[in-house]
Amino acid sequence: MAFQSKNIFINLPVKDLNKSINFFNALGFEFNQQFSDETTASMIISENIFALIMTEEKFKGFSKKEIADTTTSAEAILCLSAENREQVDQLVNKALASGGKPYSDPQDHGFMYGWGFQDVDGHIWEVVYMDESALNQE
């Protein structure tokens, strides 16, 4: 039997926890206070997906590797699904208006539409809508 996980927890280092919380609040994300403290905030992405944003000092306790310098390196690309094209644009526009930076231009592939931004710590987030009915027709 193949391994299947019930939940996913993304761990991200941040320079200023409060600044990151404010950024993601502005995008409409909520935080689970039960799993948050002065070093870590548990951001709810969906029912089974969470991002634990934590101070760099706290993050260093979980990894022996150096923290990636997001101004010159990418440690991952986090991709969120959207319900429609408008939701893609809304989330990226909120990110840019709240201190995020552009990562990619909008890309329209007919059945798939996506756009990316960098959060206040330079982590790369892609937001993608896929029209599965159009995909099945190709």
Give a quick precis of the structure.
Helix content is 25%, strand content 37%.
Give me the secondary-structure topology.
Elements: E1 8-14, H1 17-26, E2 30-32, E3 40-46, E4 49-55, H2 56-60, E5 77-81, H3 85-97, E6 101-108, E7 112-118, E8 124-130, H4 132-137
Parallel strand pairs: 1-4, 5-8
Antiparallel strand pairs: 2-3, 3-4, 6-7, 7-8
Keywords, separated by commas or semicolons:
138 residues; four-stranded mixed β-sheet; 4 helices
- Classify the secondary structure makeup into a structural class: alpha/beta
SSE order? EHEEEHEHEEEH
Residues in β-strands, percent: 35-45%
Major sheet attributes: 4 strands, mixed
> How many helices?
4
Strands ordered across the widest β-sheet? 1-4-3-2
Report Rg: 16 Å
Query: How far apart are the termini?
Result: 32 Å
Name the shape in a single word.
Answer: globular
Helix content: 10-25%
| Low-confidence runs | none
Number of strands: 8
Round the mean pLDDT to the nearest integer and report it. 94
Write structural notes for this entry.
The chain is built from 4 helices and 8 strands. By secondary structure, the chain is an alpha/beta fold. The termini are far apart. It has a 4-stranded mixed beta sheet with strand order 1-4-3-2. It has a 4-stranded mixed beta sheet with strand order 5-8-7-6, covered by helices on one side. A hairpin with a 3-residue loop joins β6 (101-108) and β7 (112-118). The longest helix has 13 residues, at 85-97.
